[in-house]
Predict the structure of Ubiquinone biosynthesis O-methyltransferase.
Amino acid sequence: MANATISPVTIRPEEAAHFGALAADWWDPKGSSAMLHRLNPVRLGFIREAVDMHWGGDIRARHPLAGKAALDVGCGAGLLCEPLARLGAQVTGVDAAAENIGAARAHARAAGLDITYHAGELAELQADRFDLVTAMEVIEHVADKGAFVHQLQERLADGGLMVISTPNRTTRSKLLLVEGAERLGMVPRGTHHWEDFVTPDELSELLAAAGLVMGAPQGIAFSPMRGLELSGDLSLNYIATARRA
C-alpha cells in the first residue's frame, strides 16, 4: 500500500476525551484503571518471553532490552512504558490524550525514569524506528485500523518485534467485557465498543496487508483461582507478536 493512500489521522476525539478524563487516577491500582493494573503483569510476562525468544536473550537477564529502543503506542499514563524502561529500553510513549501524557511525565519524573512522551497522532512523531513496538488495547479505539497498523509497521526497525493485544469480538466478550464489566463498574462505562473489537483472523489480515506476519496468539483469560492469566482461550482478549514478512 503506497504511503500516499495512508491517512495520518487515526485518533477518535471522543475516545481521547474518554481516556483523558481518567488520567488523574491512572496510577491508582484501586481506581478507574484497576483492571489495567491487573492486566499489566500478564502482558509483561508475554512481552518478556517474546523478547527473549526474538533476540535469543538470557532469561535470567535483568535488562533484556538494554541498547534497544521501544515505542508504546496508546501508552496512557505510562503503565507499560515504565517497566519497559526498567528492562533497559530507551522508551518513547505516545497517546491521544494530552492529560494522560501529563500524568505519564509526572510519574516518570517522580520515579527517576528517562522516558520520552508525545501527545497526539503516531504519524506526528519524528521518523524514528524502534526495535520493540507495542500497542496494548489500542487498535479497537482507532478511527482507521488499516492506517494504524501501517503506521505501526513504519515505526518498526528491521529485525524488530511488535506486540499487540486487543479484545476479541465474540459473544462471550460482549457479555463479560461490555455488558458485565462496565455494568459492574470494573471498567468505566463507555470504554468498550464491541463492534470495534478485532478477531485474530482480522488482525492477522491487517498485519499481512502492512507486510507483517503475526505469531500464534495467546489468550488472556480470567480464572477465579489465579485471576488474569495467559491461556489458550482467545474468546475474551488475546495478545500476539508480529514481525516483518
Summary: The domain at 3-244 is CATH 3.40.50.150 (Rossmann fold).
